[in-house]
Amino acid sequence: xxxxxVHLYNLDFSDKMPSKEVQIIRVLSPNSDKVIQFVETHxxxxxxxxxxxxxxxxxxxxxxxxxxxxIVGFSAYDATAKGYFGPIGVDxxxxxxxxxxxxxxxxxEAMYHDGYGYAIIGGAGDSVLKFYExxxxxxxxxxxxxxxxxxxxx
Length: 154
Prior knowledge:
By secondary structure, the protein is of the alpha+beta class. It has helices at about 30-40, 45-55, 100-115, 130-135, and strands spanning about 1-5, 20-25, 60-65, 70-75, 85-90, 120-125, 140. Helix 1 (about 30-40) packs antiparallel against helix 2.
């Protein structure tokens, strides 16, 4: 698992919509339970806990992808630590339709407008490094250790 760095000043945020059937929105607090349930069902309780931190703010830092009024993906920032992007996830049956790309671009644009110049993608697994490199020009941070080293395991 590697941390990655994204330079927000050089990103093109114009290509944010995956299709006409999918809408990306910032979550409103009344929908928090639905988002947490989606993340827990399709991903993990750990990610659901991170998303809770992003949702329980006056201005939530969590976005969802909606298709046919159902949640099909999510992304968050400032959930585990300030300046951190993630987690992000898309329903397995809809991957490959640019929903993840749209989510990451919406989220990073929000970070940019919140005053961040860079975003850290924390603890990216080997299976997604190329996605982040290709989609937003993320660079791997080679130093060892990251914020997730503080997780209580067991």
